[in-house]
Write a structure and sequence with these properties.
14% helix, 2 domains, 9-stranded antiparallel beta sheet, Lipocalin
Length: 264
């Protein structure tokens, strides 16, 4: 009889032991993913923003992993319209939005999305789209310093291999970097051109699969040297408001100046 009672009591002891387990053996619940933890957010962003008294503002933001940022603004169709600010950013509650604070204490808000930043108003609401513009700042590189390429609406040719650029009927060659498409677009003095680009460390830059329209322009001499310079490009550097393209040996093959004029 006693043996049967003991055998019947053992399952109860087992159930009780399972019910009371040390806290350390309880299943851990993983924290919810956030923009801060699940996205590769550090890098360079670029896009256009609405302006109160100007058609567009070209905006670039470089977010560093240590919490520093660099922001540039270029106001369309205004001379001497480029401005730069630096500061630090902090993640807000929920680790989805960030607040950029410059050295003077001014704050701007952005929502961190996959490969994009959405500008927010003072109440934390997304800026509503206008026409074809959604106001997103698109991620253009994992390298924060790459923002300089996108900091101007267009880069107008000044010289090729040290010689002056040739103006054909008042139309000067230029290039522009398109943040949403992640492509280069431009004009070679005769035809519209476009290409994919590759960015890398140490200001590496290459243009690939260069294409153009096929118009014939009598008397045009700049188009071929211009596209040849683009094809030879291996890196870039900035000198004040000038963009210098360099070949594999580090020699300057083309020199451009920032122009606050959006591409048509």
């Amino acid at each position: 009889m006693r043996r049967r009672l003991l055998l019947g009591f053992l399952p109860l002891l087992f159930l009780a032991a399972c019910a009371v387990q040390p806290a350390s053996s309880a299943r851990m619940v993983a924290p919810a993913d956030t923009s801060r933890t699940s996205l590769d957010w550090a890098g360079a962003y670029a896009g256009d923003a609405p302006g109160a008294d100007t058609p567009l503002i070209r905006v670039t933001i470089g977010l560093a992993a240590n919490g520093d940022y660099r922001l540039t603004r270029q106001y369309a169709d205004r001379p001497a319209s480029s401005f730069t600010e630096t500061g630090t950013f902090t993640w807000l509650h929920g680790d989805r939005d960030i607040a950029l604070r410059d050295r003077q204490g001014h704050t701007s808000l952005y929502q961190v999305r996959e490969n994009a930043l959405m500008p927010l108003d003072a109440n934390g609401k997304a800026i509503p789209p206008r026409g074809k513009h959604d106001w997103l700042l698109h991620k253009v590189s994992d390298l924060p310093g790459a923002t300089v390429l996108f900091s101007s609406f267009r880069w107008q040719l000044q010289a090729i291999d040290g010689s002056k650029g040739i103006e054909d009927k008042g139309r000067v060659p230029y290039i522009t970097f398109l943040p949403a498409e992640r492509r280069m677009s431009g004009f070679d003095g005769c035809n519209r051109i476009g290409a994919a680009y590759v960015l890398g460390p140490q200001r590496h830059l290459q243009f690939r699969a260069l294409i153009s329209t096929r118009m014939a322009c009598a008397g045009t001499k700049i188009d071929r040297p211009f596209t040849t310079a683009l094809e030879r490009t291996a890196s870039y550097r900035m000198l004040a408001n000038e963009l210098l393209l360099q070949n594999a040996a580090g020699a300057v093959v083309a020199r451009f100046i920032a122009v606050p004029q959006p591409e048509d």
